[in-house]
């Protein structure tokens, strides 16, 4: 699949991801080796990951040890305040109100009615991914939900054109939790990164101190394996 520049991101498209980690330096070593990322200082305690110079993700230090070690996907919005209100009116929850991130843009953290956490990004100086849909970059976001019809209703209300409009290519799927995980697993988003060879990437994950949670298995969008990094953050490898 061809590379896509961040300028094409419309409302409701996944446009950025970040990981909240106890040890950012350890994260740089893990993901730098796994995906070939380079890093530069960004805002606060976070760093930007770059793939051949293009921004692909951020790694941030957890400010509270009670916070989960997790990857979060951010959906583009032209108006973070307005979209946050729509989330609340649709039965979701705003976890972090719109927060300016320097001159980069405005971030929101929210949860859908089942509790799956996601972000919103209103861009300013930083529009989002510099590259995606290639090995080492963002490839897909999968929501594992209890009720996929309810999820379609909620996200369709928020981002109808991105998900269901003419020519929509949302990079965002919905599936029942039990398709891959134990039924007791809470609903959640799983960020997928592209790889050329899923089996080879799984070997690298294990060598670097991560572990395999599920797969590889064949999904409608490619060959997928669910893994955790060496600090416990879950993500997926996607071979198209």
From TrEMBL:
Family matches, as InterPro entries: Anthracycline_SecMetBiosynth (IPR052164), Glyas_Bleomycin-R_OHBP_Dase (IPR029068), Glyas_Fos-R_dOase_dom (IPR004360), VOC_core (IPR037523)
Ranges where the VOC domain occurs: 13-123
CDD domains for this protein: SgaA_N_like
Classification via SUPFAM superfamilies: Glyoxalase/Bleomycin resistance protein/Dihydroxybiphenyl dioxygenase (SSF54593)
Record protein name field: VOC family protein
Organism: Streptomyces asoensis
